[in-house]
Amino acid sequence: MRPAATRLLALLLALVATLAAVGLTVAVGPAAAQPTTPPDTSVDGTFLRISVDEVTPTTVTTTSPPEVTVRGTVTNVGDRPVSDIGVRLQRAPAVRTDAGLRSALADDQDVFDTVGNFDELADGEPLAQGQDLPFTLSLPLRAADGTLSLGIDRPGIYPMLVNVNGTPDYGQQARLDDATFLLPVAGLPRDTTVPDLAAPTGVPLPPDTGRPVAATVLWPLADRPRLAAGLPGTVDEKVRLIDDDLATSLDTGGRLDGLLTALEFAIQPSVDPDGALAASTCVAVDPDLLVTVAAMTRGYLVVDAADPTGPARDGTGTDAAVAWLDRLRALVADRCVVAVPFAQADLSAVAATGDAALAQAAVASPPDVVDSLLGVSSRRDVVWPAAGTVDTAAADMVAATPASAPGATDSGRSLLLARSAVDVVDAGTSPDTVLLAGTAASDRAVLFGDEVSSALAGVGADPVTPAFTPDAQRLDLTADSRTARLQDALGALQYEALLPSGAPGTTPRLDRGPRSLVVVPPQTWTPDREEASAVLGTVAGLLRSGLATPRPLADLLGVTPPAEPATLVSPSDGVPDASLVDTAREQGGRITALQSALVQDPRSSLTPALFAAPLREDLLRALGTAGRGGTDPAAVEDAARVRAAAVVAGIDRAYGAVTILAPGGVFTLASEASPLLLVARNDLPIGIAVNLTVDAPQAMEVEDIGPQQLPPRGSRSLQVPARVSDSRKMVVEFSLSTSDGVELGQPAEVTVRSNAYGRALALITVGAGILLVLLVGRRLWHRFRGQPDPADEQ
Fold first, then answer.
1. Which positions make up the signal peptide (predicted)?
2. Percentage of the chain with pLDDT > 70?
C-alpha cells in the first residue's frame, strides 16, 4: 500500500505542476479578473460637493425656534458612483478674535468638536455621476436632559460645518467634502427639554447690551463702467454703451433696483420708526453711474465694446433709468450722501500718473456731479477709495487736490480706509480715526474693520476678495454657496456687538475705547434684494435690541484721532497694471493740451471742458477697481486694456480731425512775394485755435501768421505771406499745432514754384537801368551841344 500511495501522491503533484504550467488562471484567475482601481479623474480630486442652501434661523434670538435647521444639496461631481452617503452637523467654539471671523472657517474638521449624528441619504443607494441629493439636518441649540445638541450656552458667533462622508466605487469610506458658515447667536431661546421654567436653561438668555457698538453704514450704489470709450462729449448725440446690462440692473428685480429697494424699505417710518437706521446710513454714489443713468434717460445706443464707433442699436432701459433715478432723488433728499472717486478709480494709480487734471476728475469733481444730478449737497470732507487702501502719494494727492465747489474747503478731509491699510503704532488700541505719518499735515483716516468688509464682499452673485484682506483670512469663495457667504457676513456684522468684555479667550476690549461697527461693503456690490435686506435688517436688529446705537457719518468723521500718527501700508495686489498707468499719464497730457486749444462759442452749450471730460473720465475708468479681486481678475484686466486702447484711438481721432488741406499738384507763385493759399479743416464739433508751423527751405522766407481760429465742423482759408529767392521747385511742409506745440492732424507737403528769377533777374534789372541812364545821358549831351544824335541819322 505504501508504494501505491507514493505513486498516487506523485501523480497528484505532477498533475498540479502540469496545470500550473498550462495556465496560472486556475490559481490566480479570480483575483486577476478583478478590475484595477481606475485613476482619480474627478473634479479637483473631489467626488462629492456639498452646498448649504438654507439656514434657519439665520440669526438665533430669544424668540427663535430652539433648534438650528440646515438644508442643502450633495452633488456627485466625480467620475464614479458614490454610496453610503451620510451628512452631519458640527460646531466649533465661538469666535474670540477679529481674525477668527475668517480664519475659523478654514480650520480643520477636528476643531469642530461638537458633532451630531450622520444622517444617511438615499437609503444607502449609490449616487450616480451628475446627480444630487437634498438633505435636511436639525440639532437643538442646547439640551439640559443630555440629548444630542449643539451645546450653545451663550450668545456669540459660532463656526458651523456640514460634513459629508461616502464610499466611491473602488474606494473606501471617507470624508468627501464639507461646507462651513457662521451662525450668529444674538440670544438663546428657552430650552424646551426642561419642564421647569425656573431652571437656568428654562428661560431665554438675552445678550449683554451694556456696551453697545456705534453703528455707521455706507450704502454703495455703483457699477462697472458701461459708457463706450474714446468718444468725446456732445450735447445733441445719443450716448453709446458697450452693453445693455445696466437696463436689467435698473429694472425691477435687478441688482441696482434691489439695493435701492432694500434701503427704501428699511428706512421707511413704518419699519424704522425711530429713524435709527436712517440716521446711521449714508448713501455712497459713484458719479460715473449717475452720468450713465442720466444719459440713458434721454435715449441711448448699444455698440460692440471693441468698436465704439461701429454699428449701434437702441437701448431698452430708458424707462427703467428714468424711474430709478427719480426714486434715488426722492430717497436721498435731505439725507447723507457721499460721492466716491469717479468710476471707482484706483487713487494710488491716479497719483502715479502725476496728472493734476486726472486727480481733479477723480477726487474733486465727483461731489459736483452728484450734487447736480441728484439735487443734494453731498459731503466733501471724506474720500472713500474703492480699494480701501492707498499709498502715501495718493494720500498727498487727495490733500493737495482742491475742492471744485465755490466756497468749499479741504480742511479736515478724511480718507476712509481699512484697518489693515495702516500700521497703528499702539497695537493695543484700535481707534476709529488716525493721523497719517509721512503725508500732508491735514491727512487723517477713518478706519473700518477688514473682517466685516471682507465678509460683506463675499455676498452676492460676484464675490470678491478685497485687496486689503490679509493672506491668512483669504478664503476660496467659489467653494461656498451664496447662503453660506451671506451667513458669514451676518455673523461678522454682529461679532463685535455680541463679544462680551472679559470673556474667556477673548481679545481684551476695555482698552479699545467705544466699540464700533462701520459697515463698508465693496463699492460695486452684487447682492440681490433679499441679501441686501438681510444685511440692513441685521443692522436694524442690533439697533432695536440695544446692541448698537446709531452713529451718523458726520459723528464718525468728528472723532478725534490719537496724537501718535500711523503709517500707511501700500496695497500688495489688486492694483492696475503699470502699462495702464503709463497710458493714462501720456494720454492725460494729450487731453489737457487739446482742451486748452479748444474755443468756446457763446452760442453753443458745448464747452471745452464738456468736450474733453469723457475722454479724461475714460482714463479713470481704465484705472478702476470694479471686479478686481473677483473670480476672474484676468478678464477685468483685459477689459481695462481694451478700454485704454479705445481711449487712445479716440484721442487720436480728435487730433486727426484738425488738419491742413494742401492744394494738389505744384503751387505756382506769381511773384517772389506772392502769398501761399492753404485751407485748414476742423471736423470737431467745437472751435479750436491753432498755430501754423512751416518747414521751408532756406530759399523761402515764410511769415508767422499767428494763432488762427477754426470754426466747428468747418474750414478756413489761410494766406501765408512768403518770399522766394529761387525759381527752382521747393517742397514745403505745413502742419497745425496747439499753442503748446502739440501737433494736430497730419503734416501736408506742398511743392512750390515761383516765376521769380532771383539774383539773375536783379542783375539784369540793374544792368538795364544803368544802360538806360547812359543812353538818356548820351542823347541829352548831344542835344545841349546842338549836335544831332548819330542814332537819329537814319
1. 1-33
2. 84
The cell numbers describing 585, all together, are 499719464
User: Which residues span the domain enclosing 713?
Assistant: 658-754
Report helix, strand or coil for 143.
coil
- Domain for residue 39, yes or no? no
Q: What pLDDT score was predicted for residue 413?
A: 82
3-state percent breakdown (helix, strand, coil) of the chain, nearest 5: 35, 25, 40
pLDDT (0 to 100) of residue 573 = 61
Contact present, 637 and 472 (Cβ < 8 Å)? no
Grid coordinates given for 563:
496724537
Query: Are 392 and 289 in the same domain?
Result: yes
Do 140 and 253 fall into the same domain? no
C-alpha 143/C-alpha 128 separation (Å) is 38
Q: What angle do CA 617, 248, 480 make, to 5 degrees?
A: 95
Distance of CA 287 to the CA centre of its chain: 14
Within 10 angstroms of residue 119's Cβ, the number of other Cβ atoms is: 14
Residue 43 maps to a domain: no
| Cβ burial 478-517 (10 Å sphere, 16+ → b, else e) | ebbbbbbbbbbbbbbbbbbbbbeeeeeeeeebeebeebbb
Report d(CA 469, CA 446) in Å as an integer: 17
Say how many domains are in the chain.
6
What pLDDT sits at residue 572? 61
Q: Domain check: are 721 and 774 in the same one? A: no
List of residues 6+ apart from 677 with CB closer than 8 A: 663, 667, 717, 718, 719, 720
Mean of pLDDT over the chain: 85
Same domain, 231 and 323: yes
Residues 425 and 567 in one domain: yes
Q: How far is CA 704 from CA 223, 339, 718, 730, 741, in A?
A: 51, 48, 11, 19, 14
Rounded to an integer, the average pLDDT of 676-698 is: 89
**What secondary structure does DSSP assign to 695-759, as a single string?**
E--TTEEE-----EEE-TTEEEEEEE-EEE---S-EEEEEEEE-TT--EEEEEEEEEEEES--HH
Alpha-carbon span 431 to 564, nearest angstrom? 11
Looking at the fold, whether 541 and 687 belong to one and the same domain comes out as no
Cis peptide before 57 (omega within 30 of 0): yes
Instruction: Say if residue 561 is in the same domain as residue 690.
Output: no
**Residue 69 in 3-state DSSP?**
strand
The cell numbers describing 592, all together, are: 489737457
The answer to whether the beta carbons of residues 302 and 313 sit under 8 Å apart is: yes
The CATH number of the domain holding residue 172 is 2.60.40.10
Instruction: Show the beta-strand stretches assigned E in 455-528.
Output: 516-519
Last residue of a domain, one of 613, 631, 656: 656
Residue 38 placed within a domain: no
